[in-house]
Amino acid sequence: MYRFLTLASLAVLAACSAPRVDTPAVPVPPPAVTPAPTPAPPAPIETALQAGVSAAPALAGQLGWAQSDPKPALEAFKKSCRALMRRTDATGLTKSGDWDAVCATAATATDARAFFETQFTPVSIGGGTGLNTGYFEPEILGSRTPGPGYAVPVYKRPSDLIEVDLGLFTDSLKGRRIRGRVEGDAMVPYYDRAAIEDGALSGKGLEIGYAADTYELFFLHIQGSGRLKLPDGSVMRIGYDGQNGREYVGIGQRLRQMNALGPGQASMDGIINWMKANPEGGRTLMRENKSYIFFKILTGDGPLGALNMALTPEYSVAADPKFVPLGAPLWLDSSIPEPKAPTGYTMTPFRRLMIAQDTGGAIKGANRLDLFWGPGDRARKVAGGLSSQGRTVLLLPKAVADRLLAGAAATPRR
Fold this sequence. Notes:
The protein is α+β, with helices and mostly antiparallel strands and 414 residues long. It has twelve helices and 17 strands.
């Protein structure tokens, strides 16, 4: 009995003293997590209608309206009416016939202030503010024929430059155009600035004149029109006759990114001075802007804007035709760099009724405007130094504005 108990006790003790072997735990996978779907990027805003239309204060309530002179704007608007009534409006704001009544009234209007106050309703597009820059009609030294000191060609539009309306192929590309040339059985991009400067168009009889200074001609390209002052003292006026379809790059912005310009040097004259002091860098910089402009000889009034009519200095403005109906009036509240003797500028308020009569390769988006200043030294200085945020009010015929604002009120906010 005692032996049994002893053996049993020993067995229990042996069992207690044996090493413990644990069964390894089976890892439990974490619960599956379904990744949240990536939100689709917002659709790009490509027209004024998509940007949104909202009511703006009446003209009588606009700061500076009572002190302004709207007579030149009325004359410019009368000139625009013919094109305004027949153009297809890419903004989505107006339809065929929307401008007929106000244009008929404008034809006999004599009181400009009363005309604009009674015939139009002011509206804002999008946020209502945007960048204002300036352009002018430069005069540079040139010649009709090449010779000593006149070696930089001014080209007319080449016959092999073609423009394609992509909207003819698919509705999703309506309003979009490309330019290029045919090579073999394919359309390819047109020659860029570097290729043209290296002689891609030489020997084709496209030269309508020759400039004395490559940098001055470069800025005449940016302005889109200008004058060649010929050796005999006469002037040959040239205007925009097409663009190569390549992208525009603002070299002033590139120089600022390079910290190459000091305070007060980010004007056209400051940029030209930098390029002349750094010819290799200037040449490389110019070629970053692949856009190239072709010209035609102008006779009569000018320069001509996108509506093929003479622009009015300080009253004509270039705008994006997808955001402003070309020919429409705009009230602008901005500031300009007024030249201050002997050097420098002073920023002064600029509040004026303008007419959208032109476009520009760099003028894209809502409330982005380029103000035309005409010829002369003051125009050069103001336009060359202008870069301000401005508030823009678009004037639409009353019936059109009522229709748009009623539609905006009925559309729920997303």
